[in-house]
């Protein structure tokens, strides 16, 4: 079954020619909620419309009893009210587990309920996990937003994977939707799988982490606190206490201190960072093999881009392809593009892309309903 071809194209054309409107993006954490207003600007005949952020505001979550109150405050801002473009959709990226378009926040008493918000504010609302939003931002990135580590051709419409070491370790897979002609993001909790160490140092690290935590998940050694744990592990092992790195005084360090010292050439911090990057590379390779990510493997998050000086030594890429072990799938991993994402606003870009998708869906449905031919179909 298919739609009449001429009707399909005319409906899409009318949808793409829809008037100016606005969308809202949200980046909502336990401490702050950043909301942005994006206005659609028609680029002219034959060109895709562009959405430009015209206003944003960040609110402390403690200032409002509910997210509804926060969103209303944003809509009441003079810069928002003065916009002549009606709000058509909102995509809200939240730090928490989302189920049925709803997320009870963990570090505040807010509940972000897309259905309830849609009923109250009369525009479409999608609630996304924050890393799901990062996933939707990946296809919209420019070449200048990426640093290629394995610079091989990207296969169009092939699966992609994205991971992001930061406060935790986010992970998601992207699969092409031929019906929508875009990628669908499938978030997951693979970061909580058991860590698979490589080599005796990582095995010793696993034993140390297990003794401390009871179990060693990948995330425990592949995020900010993971880097801190690796550093503490190196200090605890006499094997690594060379004359130039004997601990003195308070030896506990936070991840930003460790990364800064590594970039300054400190031997122990550099060793901790290199172990950390090797673990990230190995997990990126495992994710790539799970879905044959010839569309690209993307490392986002706040830590790795700050460590590009160490990344460029090859430690992450060598671990990605498991070069030292002569892995039998090394040849396959070498065909998969690997990038570091340097654009820190990739999650906001993803929220924008998803809100735009909501508007397009609404416009297409409305255009089909208004078409003189109605919803008629014919068999092939």
From TrEMBL:
InterPro entries per record: ATPase_NBD (IPR043129), Glucokinase (IPR003836)
UniProt KW Kinase keyword: yes
Coiled-coil stretches noted in the UniProt entry, renumbered to this chain: none
Keywords of this entry: Kinase, Transferase
Domain of life according to the entry: Eukaryota
PANTHER family: GLUCOKINASE (PTHR47363:SF1)
UniProt protein name: Glucokinase
Organism: Tetradesmus obliquus (Green alga)
Source taxonomy: Eukaryota, Viridiplantae, Chlorophyta, core chlorophytes, Chlorophyceae
């Amino acid at each position: 079954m298919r739609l009449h071809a001429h009707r399909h194209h005319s409906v899409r054309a009318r949808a793409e020619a829809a008037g100016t409107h606005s969308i809202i993006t949200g980046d909502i954490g336990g401490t702050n909620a950043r909301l942005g207003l994006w206005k659609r600007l028609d680029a002219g005949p034959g060109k895709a419309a562009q959405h430009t952020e015209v206003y944003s505001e960040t609110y402390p979550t403690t200032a409002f009893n509910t997210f509804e109150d926060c969103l209303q405050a944003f809509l009441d801002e003079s810069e928002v009210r003065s916009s002549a473009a009606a709000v058509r959709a909102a995509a809200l990226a939240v730090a928490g587990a989302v189920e049925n378009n709803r997320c009870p926040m963990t570090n505040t008493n807010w509940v972000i309920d897309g259905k309830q918000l849609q009923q109250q504010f009369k525009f479409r609302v999608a609630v996304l996990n924050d890393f799901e939003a990062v996933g939707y931002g990946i296809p919209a990135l420019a070449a200048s937003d990426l640093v290629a580590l394995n610079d091989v051709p990207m296969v169009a419409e092939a699966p992609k994977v994205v991971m992001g070491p930061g406060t935790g370790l986010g992970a998601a897979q992207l699969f092409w939707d031929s019906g929508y002609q875009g990628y669908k993001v499938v978030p997951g909790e693979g970061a909580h799988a058991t860590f698979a160490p490589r080599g005796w140092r990582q095995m010793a690290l696993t034993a140390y982490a297990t003794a401390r935590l009871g179990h060693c998940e990948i995330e425990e050694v592949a995020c900010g606190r993971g880097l801190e744990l690796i550093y503490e592990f190196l200090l605890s092992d006499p094997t690594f206490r060379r004359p130039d790195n004997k601990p003195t005084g308070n030896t506990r360090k936070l991840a930003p201190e460790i990364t800064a010292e590594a970039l300054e050439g400190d031997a122990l911090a550099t060793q901790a960072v290199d172990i950390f990057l090797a673990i990230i590379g190995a997990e990126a390779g495992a994710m790539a093999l799970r879905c044959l990510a010839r569309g690209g493997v993307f490392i986002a998050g706040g830590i790795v881009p700050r460590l590009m000086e160490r990344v460029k030594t090859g430690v992450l890429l060598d671990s990605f392809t498991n070069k030292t072990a002569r892995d039998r799938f090394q040849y396959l991993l070498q065909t998969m593009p690997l990038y570091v994402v340097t654009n820190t606003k990739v999650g906001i870009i993803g929220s924008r892309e998803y809100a735009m998708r909501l508007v397009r869906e609404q416009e297409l449905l409305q255009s089909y309903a208004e078409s003189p031919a109605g919803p008629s179909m014919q068999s092939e």
